[in-house]
Specification:
The chain has 415 residues and is of the alpha/beta class. It has helices at residues 6-9, 48-60, 75-90, 105-118, 132-138, 142-158, 175-187, 204-220, 239-248, 270-279, 290-301, 322-343, 366-375, 382-393, 401-414, and strands at 28-31, 65-67, 96-102, 123-129, 163-168, 192-197, 227-232, 253-256, 318-319, 357-358. The chain folds into two domains: 15-301, Alpha-Beta Barrel (TIM Barrel), CATH 3.20.20.70; 318-414, no CATH class. The two termini are 46 Å apart.
Length: 415
């Protein structure tokens, strides 16, 4: 058996029965961190310097589009968005600029002005509530909703900007309403349709039905060229899996935010989306800047990364369990780093610039101690290993490097 051959030592059920649409076309990403992510009630609005640094990190990760904000919200937003667009232009970044707007001229015209000032085409993401509950609450008629859609898309297109039409609460909207609004938006020149699961209502079955229905509608409208986006919220904890299902069913651009920041419990975690798309073969880019990207957002917004957060959390590739440590060492000895990185990890640490870490604590055994000693270039002997295991078993938590070093010094001194 070849230890470096994935097919020989890992059977991947994820690739069994994969839907026919999964590999139809590349998946693009739109980063909502600087707009929807900052709508979280628990984050600080970063400085413009921090926002510029974040856009640079997005670009380094290969993210195609960034929603830079909603200029119609006020002067601070307008200034920040203008500075970010200027930076994208002056630094020659590949990432493209987008801005959110209600279906109102007062929101769209500031985007037009920034585009004209900077000479950069900015995608207009103009949104309108589409569900019956929203329609009832706002007192809208279907005619009014058609008019808002028509006027907003027409304004952006007339000013020479690419316009994407966003239906809020799409996952709870009636198909008759959606078909009317999409038809109007496409007739006026919208180049993308964005399905927004605004309250995190959708299940994977709902996403399958929604995107299959939408593709059929676009065919009937003679508009198969119109792009499809998914913007998910995480109220049921399903945003990430819903995004992957959307990609499987014809969605070619997915939205998310760093660390899943956003309204209420947040949006699809873009960092985890990047990793999963990479592992599925749908995104081919170096992800070693993923950790700095998340760490930068955490610092700039004042939202620490939980230790157990997948991939980028402190504990993602860290173990103090004896059985796991023993398996890691055996894997390293038999198959090298490739096998070690996968024996107890669904995400290879090296893909994101990290490594497997073996710690020592109350659930540890001799394998943990041997690994720790080797990592710190300390010669091992049975007595020292036994003493460290004994002391670790008496602890109520994982020991720090300083505590382990002190135990080593005590044990060697006693000799």
């Amino acid at each position: 058996m070849s230890a470096g051959s994935p097919a020989d030592i890992i059977f991947d059920w994820n690739l069994v029965g994969v839907g026919s649409h999964l590999y139809d076309r590349p998946v693009q990403l739109l980063d909502e961190t600087l707009r929807d992510g900052l709508q979280s009630p628990s984050v600080a609005d970063p400085s413009i310097e921090d926002k510029i640094a974040l856009v640079d990190l997005m670009d380094q990760l290969g993210i195609q589009v960034a929603d830079l904000g909603l200029p119609g919200a006020g002067l601070r937003q307008t200034r920040h968005v203008t500075a970010l667009v200027q930076h994208i232009r002056d630094a020659g970044l590949r990432i493209e600029a987008a801005c959110a707007a209600r279906t109102l001229a007062n929101d769209i015209l500031p985007i037009v002005e920034i585009s004209q000032t900077t000479g950069v085409r900015i995608e207009v993401l103009t949104f309108l509530g589409a569900s019956q509950i929203r329609k009832f609450t706002e007192g809208w008629t279907l005619d009014e909703m058609r008019r808002l859609t028509r006027d907003a898309v027409r304004l952006g297109v007339r000013e020479g900007l690419p316009v994407s039409f966003v239906t809020e609460d799409t996952a709870r909207a009636h198909p008759d309403v959606l078909s009317e609004l999409f038809r109007v938006a496409i007739d006026e020149g919208a180049h993308r349709i964005i399905h927004c699961d605004t309250v995190g209502h959708a299940t994977p079955d709902g996403i399958r039905s929604l995107f299959d229905w939408t593709r059929e509608l676009l065919e009937r409208l003679g508009a198969p060229h119109v792009g499809l986006d998914f913007h998910g919220h995480n109220d049921r904890g399903l945003a990430l899996v819903n995004s992957l299902v959307a990609a499987e069913h014809g969605c070619d651009r997915l939205h998310g935010t760093a660390l899943g920041l956003g309204e209420r419990v947040g949006n699809t975690a873009l960092d985890l989306l990047l990793v999963n798309l990479q592992l599925l073969g749908l995104y081919d880019h170096d992800l070693r800047e993923l950790i700095p990207y998340c760490q930068h957002v955490a610092r700039a917004t004042g939202r620490p990364i939980p230790h157990n957060y997948p991939v980028v959390g402190q504990d993602a590739f860290r173990t103090s369990t004896g059985v796991h440590a023993a398996a890691l060492l055996k894997a390293r000895a038999k198959g090298g780093a490739w096998v070690e990185d996968r024996i107890y990890s669904g995400v290879p640490a090296t893909e994101v610039g990290k490594a497997q870490v073996i710690e020592v604590g109350p659930h540890s055994g001799a394998s943990n101690v041997l690994a720790w000693l080797a990592a710190h270039r300390i010669p091992a002997n049975p007595g020292l290993v036994e003493e460290i295991v004994r002391r670790a078993k008496r602890s109520d938590r994982t020991l720090t490097d300083a505590e382990l070093s002190a135990i080593v010094q005590d044990a060697l001194g006693a000799r």
